[in-house]
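Hi R.,

As promised on Friday, here is the backbone we talked about, encoded as structure tokens. Could you run it through your design pipeline when you get a chance and send me back a sequence?
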């Protein structure tokens, strides 16, 4: 038996003691004992619990790998997530003012990737067990929106007909305006008879849309999402902010950042128009994104909406082919890159005359790198807001304002 004290949390939310020794489900300041297995402590017993320790709200928490921080108070998680961003900025020599964190409520996730496996008796659907590829069922999940929960039973029926006993299928379940929008990958190949089985299941479960291995099998109802005044039908499984509350918090931060002044705006890494379309209520927008299908969806939403200013779209790889300063003549720009950040595009933005940038990021480390480039080039980092739409996970998202000085 080894007894150690937890010093801090790692980026995956594991407690870390000197060594380093990793101890999942523990908190800084706790004294714990267990069996040392390399750099991990197993059979862990909490000897002195932290004041921040709480009873996990979900009964699946001990085994389910979906959440990492249900044993910590909301206040602790909020401070920890803000601290991660503060630390990443400090590593680049930057400081920022932080707006209060916006945390999505429990049971608000409108999108989840479920795993499913066919079994002797039927099928198993849920999330992976902690640190394992075993699928465990989560009928009382405290993360998913109540209207998304029926996706679990529908996914079970799909796995029974379309998964092999050996492999797993993955079901991206999204709540759209007309119910459930499911996109399955890793399922058996589509053929005529199988297609009609799937079509029957779509009817039976009242799904809005089903895509199988990238192909739309049935679109019973339009799988719309509302972005401002527009109704958009994203391609199956396309990027969508994880909660409605998170999307609204990010949009509010973006609007605060640009201050409602500009007439001409640029949305970089625009996706299906989460920001472009609401901003088009007041400004003419140009949306740039690598996925042509997402831009087609954005465009469709704009064409059918009433009362929006002009929106243009451009399919472009902004990593390999960033927009150069001569073409960056806008009153404001929104930038919301994937986890890798936007090094190449930020290098060009840094040379532009755009007075204000609203930066949305899902990776504090690449954000801090890109922020440092902007600050070195004459932008000021006005504020940062952490937006926690991946509640109880170690994932951190943020919005920030940069202004030209
Ligand atoms: C974090 S998402 C944001 C999407 C959108 N702003 C939203 O909030 O829904 C990042 C987007 O960047 C796009 N993307 C990824 N790599 C890209 C690249 N090299 N060039 C342009 N867009 C890219 C993805 O397709 C995705 O839509």
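Update: got your reply. Pasting your designed sequence below so it's all in one thread:
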């Amino acid at each position: 038996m080894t007894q150690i004290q937890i010093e801090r949390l790692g980026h995956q939310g594991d407690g870390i003691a000197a060594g380093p020794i990793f101890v999942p489900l523990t908190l800084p300041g706790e004294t714990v004992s267990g069996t040392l297995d390399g750099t991990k402590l197993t059979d862990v017993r909490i000897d002195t619990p932290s004041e921040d320790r709480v009873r996990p709200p979900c009964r699946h928490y001990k085994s389910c790998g979906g959440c990492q921080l249900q044993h910590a108070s909301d206040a602790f998680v909020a401070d920890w997530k803000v601290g991660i961003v503060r630390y990443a900025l400090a590593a680049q020599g930057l400081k920022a003012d932080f707006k209060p964190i916006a945390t999505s409520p429990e049971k608000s996730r409108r999108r989840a990737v479920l795993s499913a496996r066919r079994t002797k008796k039927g099928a198993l659907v849920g999330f992976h067990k902690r640190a394992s590829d075993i699928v465990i069922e989560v009928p009382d999940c405290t993360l998913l929106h109540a209207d998304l929960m029926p996706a679990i039973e529908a996914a079970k029926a799909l796995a029974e007909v379309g998964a092999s006993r050996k492999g797993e299928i993955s079901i991206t379940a999204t709540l759209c305006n007309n119910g459930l929008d499911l996109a399955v990958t890793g399922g058996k190949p589509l053929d005529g008879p199988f297609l009609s089985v799937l079509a029957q299941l779509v009817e039976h479960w009242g799904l809005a849309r089903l895509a199988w291995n990238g192909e739309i099998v049935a679109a019973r109802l339009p799988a719309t999402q509302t972005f401002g005044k527009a109704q958009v039908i994203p391609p199956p499984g396309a990027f969508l902010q994880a909660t409605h509350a998170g999307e609204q918090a990010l949009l509010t931060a973006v609007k605060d950042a640009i201050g409602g002044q500009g007439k001409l705006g640029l949305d970089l890494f625009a996706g299906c128009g989460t920001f472009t379309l609401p901003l088009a209520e007041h400004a003419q927008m140009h949306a740039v994104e690598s996925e042509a299908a997402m831009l087609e969806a954005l465009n469709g939403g704009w064409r059918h909406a009433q009362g929006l200013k002009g929106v243009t779209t451009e399919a472009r790889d902004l990593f390999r082919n960033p927009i150069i300063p001569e073409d960056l003549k806008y009153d404001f720009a929104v930038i919301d890159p994937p986890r890798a950040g936007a090094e190449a595009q930020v290098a060009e933005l840094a040379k532009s005359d755009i007075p204000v940038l609203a930066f949305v990021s899902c990776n504090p480390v690449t954000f801090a790198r890109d922020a440092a480039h902007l600050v070195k080039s004459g932008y000021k980092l006005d504020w940062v807001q952490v937006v926690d739409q991946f509640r109880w996970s170690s994932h951190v998202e943020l919005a920030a304002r940069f202004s030209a000085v």
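One thing I noticed while checking it: The longest strand covers residues 379-388.

Thanks again,
M.
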